[in-house]
Design a protein that fits this description.
Blueprint lengths: L21 H15 L13 H18 L4 H9 L6 H4 L3 H17 L20
């Protein structure tokens, strides 16, 4: 493929509709342009933030632990605490509620909510303008 800046007589263009997915399309066009120009693609638009990735990893680790038969207290001790939690303290421990909340999020992800990640940073409920 010849260098795209070599004075070709052809006119090249990309047409992008101004809809809800414009930024995603614009980034895809930018990456395409950079690939044609043999340059690195650069950071991807809409990449999950590091904190969100970490939270999803924790969700799935808690889900896996529960499926493997771990108790809520064992999950809290291994994944969320640096020290053991006494059985007498567990009933009112703040990590008990946190483990339950994480499991609710994990159950949602495993039940199909993970597919929402494919639409990030757009919301799945938004209908594209066509």
């Amino acid at each position: 493929m010849a260098d795209i800046r070599s004075g070709a007589t052809e006119f090249n263009a990309i047409v992008l509709p101004l809809d809800a997915a414009f930024e995603t399309r614009l980034d895809a066009a930018r990456q395409f342009w950079r690939a044609l120009d043999r340059r690195p693609s650069g950071p991807a638009y809409g990449a999950l933030p590091k904190q969100t990735k970490t939270r999803h990893i924790l969700n799935l680790r808690v889900h896996d632990a529960r499926r493997a038969g771990a108790t809520y207290r064992e999950i809290a001790e291994v994944l969320l605490s640096r020290e053991a939690i006494a059985p007498r303290d567990w009933r009112d421990h703040h990590l008990r509620h946190k483990v339950r909340a994480i499991l609710r999020r994990a159950d949602h992800l495993v039940a199909g909510g993970y597919s929402d990640l494919l639409f990030y940073p757009h919301r799945r409920g938004q209908k594209p303008d066509r």
